[in-house]
């Protein structure tokens, strides 16, 4: 029955899609317009295929057609029937069609939840009845080479006037008799992935001058995969997938790694019973699962092979300066199909990037490129592909004494308000942000206090440690930080006039402030004075001094319990650097030895002692003194940059803060790697 459609469809049919006015649940019916035929002065017959009835009762079905592809046009016509249709339903329009004019049609099904529409089809009247297809008879299961029977009316007498294509591939018409002809499914053709999932096949007919296009649901035979003993595959081997009914002109094999990255594997053999592919992917697991698309449908195949581990030869090692490294890895089972299918992993460095520059099945050349981050003294290079990390590693030893071990925000260092100091095998870094305690090169620092109140914020020009406290001064103001209570305390100002190059140290219950210079590196008689603060009574007293002598530097250190000072005595014509020992009885300094004329002004906050060696690190001209005979050796391969006071000592390692790009970086300095001259 034909009736005029007076309702508006919610959304226009666009391209090959129809209105999506309703929210279509996943359980709604799925179907398509399969055939438009019989377009003549008698009308037109529409046919539709249903390949999923859905979960709701179908109340009505039919077709909507009209001259406007936007079928919400009030002039659109509707053909309808009540109840549940057959899998293939047909209705014929007998009016409202003009010869030679294009029309558009969709099928629809109505349920309690709403109306669901098919895709849109276009047709034009041909002006004559011509061949009319009745049905296509197919076996319950079909495969390449099987026979389809076409039944219909008005067949030509000459079989050569019949042409059939299945999915765009020419099919052979093998016989014609009465009202039917038989067609052999091509031995191979390409499958449309979307239609293949639902068993829909596009069949195009040309009978004499009339052309028809129909979708037919065929139950195409599914492939079978044979899983035998799991073979071990090297990257120089082929991956072999065995089975039955695997034939497909466009068969594809893919690998999806653990992160969802998909790689298409190169297919070498597409056979009925065997598929062979190359392992041209970066595999991230020992037993990869493959995705095989056969005749438009994807299948996941597991346990078809396992990867042979990649091995590195033992005892491969070299040294580098921590900057660039060029190394050659020798081993077994690298992937020779592309450098992107190999992966190396650095253990002990986030600072370097590893770039593969050359590769083969048993050799790879790697360049380590510096970037940002930290690294350790020993960096291990391993392959990491397939079954995982290689058991053995290439060992890189960093020969530079200084390595970056921790990173902090750029503002962690606050210029004049920052300083480093050591106490009892721990390092302390102090800034206006507070007091931070370091116990090792890898553990994060512990914030003991901070930030400092404004009254206690001043340049920390001098720092000393002793008897459970840290002491800070700018040359006048004085502050104590108690490491038990983690609280700061303001102390009486320093009484001396000299405010630079002071001797500043703690010994036997007293804090000493000695000698030094006025601001601007000037001297006057007050620069020869010595003072000490009783840490119990907090009272300053003045000590006897070398009258008329001026000292700068005044860096104190202890060796085997004895307190020494490295200082430069300023003479009228020259400066002499000397070592002096502190006499606890007389509270005075006793000359030990002149080190060298002129001397080196040491600007670090501390002098570092390891065993008998006393290390003086500087922006340049760093050196070491042997305390058994006070001989000196210059250090050729370490500099501290422009911030020498940002350091401390933890056991037998030295540490120094510096800026790198937009971060504050803590460097570990190992004296075992010093080069002397």
UniProtKB/TrEMBL annotation:
Gene3D superfamilies: Kelch-type beta propeller. Residues 1-19 form the signal peptide. Keywords: Signal. InterPro entries: Kelch-typ_b-propeller. It comes from the Bacteria. This is IPT/TIG domain-containing protein. It comes from Algoriphagus boseongensis. The lineage of its organism: Bacteria, Pseudomonadati, Bacteroidota, Cytophagia, Cytophagales.
């Amino acid at each position: 029955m034909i009736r005029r459609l007076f309702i508006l469809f919610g959304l226009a049919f666009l391209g090959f899609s129809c209105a999506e006015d309703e929210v279509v649940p996943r359980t709604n019916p799925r179907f398509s317009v399969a055939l438009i035929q019989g377009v003549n002065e008698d009308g037109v017959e529409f046919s539709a295929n249903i390949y999923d009835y859905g979960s709701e009762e179908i109340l009505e079905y039919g077709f909507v057609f009209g001259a406007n592809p936007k079928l919400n046009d009030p002039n659109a016509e509707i053909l309808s029937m009540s109840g549940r249709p057959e899998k293939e339903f047909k209705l014929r329009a007998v009016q409202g069609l003009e010869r030679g004019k294009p029309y558009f049609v969709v099928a629809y099904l109505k349920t309690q939840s709403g109306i669901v529409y098919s895709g849109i089809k276009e047709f034009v009247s041909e002006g004559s009845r011509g061949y009319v297809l009745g049905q296509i008879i197919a076996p319950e299961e079909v495969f390449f080479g099987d026979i389809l029977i076409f039944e219909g009316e008005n067949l030509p007498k000459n079989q050569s006037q019949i042409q059939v294509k299945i999915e765009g591939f020419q099919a052979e018409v093998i016989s014609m008799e009465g009202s039917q002809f038989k067609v052999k499914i091509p031995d191979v053709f390409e499958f449309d992935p979307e239609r293949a999932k639902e068993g829909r096949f596009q069949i195009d007919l040309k009978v004499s001058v009339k052309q028809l296009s129909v979708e037919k649901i065929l139950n195409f035979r599914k492939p079978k995969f044979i899983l035998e003993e799991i073979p071990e595959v090297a990257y120089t081997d082929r991956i072999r997938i065995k089975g039955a009914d695997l034939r497909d002109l466009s068969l594809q094999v893919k690998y999806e790694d653990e992160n969802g990255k998909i790689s298409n594997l190169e297919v070498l053999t597409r056979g009925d019973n065997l598929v062979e592919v190359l392992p041209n992917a970066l595999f991230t697991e020992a037993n990869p699962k493959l995705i095989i698309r056969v005749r438009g449908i994807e299948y996941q195949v597991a346990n078809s092979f396992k990867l042979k581990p990649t091995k590195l030869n033992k005892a491969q090692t070299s040294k580098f300066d921590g900057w660039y490294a060029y190394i050659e890895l020798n081993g077994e089972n690298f992937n020779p199909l592309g450098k992107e299918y190999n992966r190396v992993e650095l253990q002990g460095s986030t600072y370097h990037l590893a770039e593969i520059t050359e590769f083969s099945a048993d050799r790879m050349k790697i360049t380590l490129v510096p970037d940002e981050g930290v690294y350790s003294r020993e960096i291990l290079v391993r392959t990491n592909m397939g079954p995982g990390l290689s058991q053995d590693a290439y060992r890189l030893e960093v020969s530079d004494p200084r390595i970056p071990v921790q990173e902090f925000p750029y503002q962690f260092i606050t210029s004049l308000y920052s300083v480093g100091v050591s106490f009892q095998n721990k390092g302390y870094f102090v800034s206006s942000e507070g007091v931070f305690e370091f116990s090792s090169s890898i553990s994060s620092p512990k914030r003991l206090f901070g930030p400092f109140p404004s009254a206690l914020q001043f340049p920390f020009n001098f720092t000393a440690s002793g008897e459970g406290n840290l002491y800070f001064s700018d040359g006048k103001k004085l502050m104590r930080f108690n490491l038990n209570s983690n609280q700061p305390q303001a102390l009486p100002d320093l009484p001396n006039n000299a405010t630079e190059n002071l001797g500043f140290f703690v010994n036997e219950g007293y804090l000493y402030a000695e000698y030094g210079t006025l601001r601007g590196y000037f001297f006057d008689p007050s620069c020869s004075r010595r003072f000490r603060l009783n840490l119990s009574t907090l009272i300053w007293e003045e000590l006897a001094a070398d009258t008329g002598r001026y000292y700068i530097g005044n860096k104190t250190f202890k060796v085997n319990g004895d307190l020494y000072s490295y200082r430069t005595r300023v003479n009228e014509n020259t400066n002499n650097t000397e070592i002096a020992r502190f006499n606890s009885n007389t509270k005075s300094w006793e000359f030990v030895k002149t080190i060298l004329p002129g001397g080196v002004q040491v600007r670090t906050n501390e002098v570092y002692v390891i065993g008998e060696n006393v290390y003086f690190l500087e922006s340049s001209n760093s050196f070491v003194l042997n305390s058994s005979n006070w001989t000196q050796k210059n250090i050729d391969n370490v500099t501290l940059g422009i911030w020498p006071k940002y350091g401390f000592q933890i056991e037998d390692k030295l540490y120094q803060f510096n800026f790198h790009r937009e971060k504050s970086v803590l460097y570990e300095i190992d004296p075992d790697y010093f080069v002397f001259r």
